[in-house]
């Protein structure tokens, strides 16, 4: 989800009646939900951290920034290629075992990234991290729903998903500053430490849940034909593609503007605005999903237009970053909710498809951004984002009956 967005799985199949993991008090199980939020944080930050330390990684591993940007592509391919088959293969696993396996995968992948002096080995570790992400995103939101009281399931997912904006607003800037001060390897080492601590937290605080019954998931071919699912998936791919093109190479673009030392601050502003965006989305999504999705795409487009100003000042760039964050912050929640509602009884399969497509878009964005950077220069990045956002607005506007329905 990064995905990164990032993005998460939707409602899982109802938990069996026995044992019931929901707290008898009818309150949110905050220790467990905060552990899940930290898992989301680890997943999102591992995805997006290269954007903040790209110049250092590039110089140390002896490759260009466009080539190093493919570390995001490798991660995304790991998720895109394995999310659907792994979700099917591990559907019967108990949920805690699967979550612990995923987080152990992150610890291993970030450790290898931190110590590797080989570009090929680093790319392999990033692919492994993407596989771990595919496992995590396929279960995290559903896990949060299943351990919460029925009337608080939406709030439980919101608590778990706070890991995404926290990764953007705190994690990436902190990793960027740590990378500048000590070296980029220290940032990935810190990620390993967080993952190891989280393994113990999950073991102690998160209740176990059974897997899905055999045959519990709908086939992909049937799900994609469900009215509304295809428009949501199309919007997801295009929106994430646009975001990834800009986010992965934001350091290179700021260098193009003569603001090379501002990457950490720009990402901090972007992440803080994303927090505001997800907070506002959480308050209004039940009644305003369509309007919020349109507003987010438009804010992102305005931000890209401001970035495209050739002589943009530092202040104007920060304004653009804030608009970008406001527009992007609610996107993972909006899209996962839209596809779950459109999928209906096949929501789990629709969510897994969204995870795969989200990460396919990330992979494509890493490649496309690198080609733009090498072929046309950094100045082409915001213009490409503007072009991609036009069909997003058109599809959301047209999907009034299914996908992004008009309510009320």
Provide structural commentary.
The chain is mostly helical and 408 residues long. The protein has one domain (30-398): MFS general substrate transporter like domains (Growth Hormone, Chain: A, Up-down Bundle), CATH 1.20.1250.20. The protein is 75% helix and 0% strand. The chain has 17 helices and no strands. The chain has helices spanning 30-61, 65-68, 70-89, 95-115, 119-137, 140-146, 153-161, 163-181, 184-205, 220-224, 229-248, 250-256, 263-307, 314-329, 331-343, 347-375, 380-398. Helix 1 (30-61) packs antiparallel against helix 3 (70-89) and helix 4 (95-115) packs antiparallel against helix 9. The protein is globular and about 55 Å long. It starts with 29 loop residues before the first helix and ends in a 10-residue tail after the last helix. It is found in: Cell membrane. Pfam families: MFS_1. Keywords: Cell membrane, Membrane, Transmembrane, Transmembrane helix. InterPro entries: MFS (IPR011701), MFS_dom (IPR020846), MFS_Efflux_Transporters (IPR050189), MFS_trans_sf (IPR036259). This is Putative MFS family arabinose efflux permease.
User: How would you spell out the order of helices and strands?
Assistant: HHHHHHHHHHHHHHHHH
Q: Give the CATH topology.
A: Growth Hormone, Chain: A
So, the CATH homologous superfamily?
MFS general substrate transporter like domains
- Give the low-pLDDT segments: 2-18
Q: Return the structural class.
A: mainly alpha
- Count the beta strands: 0
Which second-level CATH architecture applies? Answer: Up-down Bundle
> Strand count, sense and closure of the main sheet?
none
Q: Identify the overall geometry.
A: globular
Task: Supply the number of helical segments.
Answer: 17
CATH class division = Mainly Alpha
What level of helicity do the residues show? over 70%
């Amino acid at each position: 989800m990064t995905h990164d967005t990032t993005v998460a799985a939707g409602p899982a199949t109802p938990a069996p009646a026995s044992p019931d993991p929901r707290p008898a008090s009818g309150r949110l199980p905050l220790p467990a939900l905060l552990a899940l939020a930290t898992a989301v944080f680890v997943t999102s930050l591992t995805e997006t951290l290269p954007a903040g330390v790209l110049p250092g990684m590039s110089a140390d591993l002896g490759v260009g920034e466009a080539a190093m940007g493919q570390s995001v592509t490798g991660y995304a391919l790991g998720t895109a290629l394995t999310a659907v088959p792994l979700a099917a293969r591990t559907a019967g696993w108990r949920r805690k075992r699967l979550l612990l396996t995923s987080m152990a995968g992150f610890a291993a992948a970030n450790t290898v990234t931190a110590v590797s002096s080989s570009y090929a080995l680093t790319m392999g570790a990033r692919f492994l991290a993407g596989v771990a992400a595919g496992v995590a995103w396929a279960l995290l939101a559903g896990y949060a729903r299943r351990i919460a009281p029925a009337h608080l399931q939406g709030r439980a997912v919101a608590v778990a998903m706070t890991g995404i904006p926290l990764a953007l607003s705190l994690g990436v800037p902190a990793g960027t500053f740590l990378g500048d001060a000590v070296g980029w390897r220290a940032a990935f080492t810190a990620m390993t430490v967080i993952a190891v601590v989280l393994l113990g937290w999950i073991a102690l605080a998160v209740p176990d849940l059974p897997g899905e019954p055999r045959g519990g998931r709908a086939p992909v071919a049937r799900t994609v034909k469900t009215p509304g699912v295809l428009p949501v998936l199309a919007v997801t791919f295009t929106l994430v593609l646009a975001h990834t093109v800009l986010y992965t190479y934001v350091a290179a673009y700021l260098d193009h503007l003569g603001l090379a030392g501002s990457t950490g601050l720009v990402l901090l502003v972007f992440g803080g605005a994303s927090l505001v965006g997800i907070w506002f989305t959480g308050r209004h999504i039940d009644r305003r999903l369509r309007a919020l999705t349109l507003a987010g795409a438009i804010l992102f487009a305005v931000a890209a237009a401001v970035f495209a100003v050739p002589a943009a000042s530092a202040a104007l760039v920060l304004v653009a970053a804030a608009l970008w964050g406001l527009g992007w912050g609610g996107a993972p929640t909006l899209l996962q909710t839209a596809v779950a509602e459109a999928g209906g009884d096949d929501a789990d399969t629709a969510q897994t498809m969204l995870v795969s497509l989200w990460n396919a878009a990330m992979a494509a964005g890493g490649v496309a951004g690198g080609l733009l950077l090498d072929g046309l220069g950094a100045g082409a990045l915001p213009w490409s984002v503007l072009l991609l956002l036009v069909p997003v607005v058109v599809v959301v506007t047209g999907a009034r009956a299914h996908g992004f329905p008009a309510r009320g």
